[in-house]
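Practice problem: predict the structure.
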Amino acid sequence: MPRKETTRLIQLLAAIALWSCIACGTPTEPGVRIQNGWWTSSSGFGLYVQQGSASLAAGCGHGSFPLPTPRRDGTFEADGTFGFQAGPPPQGGASYPPARFVGQTDGIHMTLTIQRSGSAALGPFSFDFDGPQPKKPLVPPCP
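Answer:
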């Protein structure tokens, strides 16, 4: 093969390799995002996502966590708080124990498991994205 053709072939192969690396992205580059608004479950649980945080209401259970950036495959993890409360709100607000929220989303559907230290995990729970208002009825808070 003449030298000029060999040089062009090498340049073409290098360009293809470079394009492949750019097109693939990185393993931590987000492929999906957790949309702002209401996510609801068929169990009546509600997850409200707003800029930077998520709040979970599950009957007597309440939790919150900073909004994570999902990995390319949609999986995510976040440290937050989760606890149970019944009766009138405590003076000065509620303080809940630490919890780890582990989930996966495709941007429209989400599964979420709550891992609490020293207790059995809760879930997984399935949520659907509803938008600015919940479309499914939510379980009222405990009296």
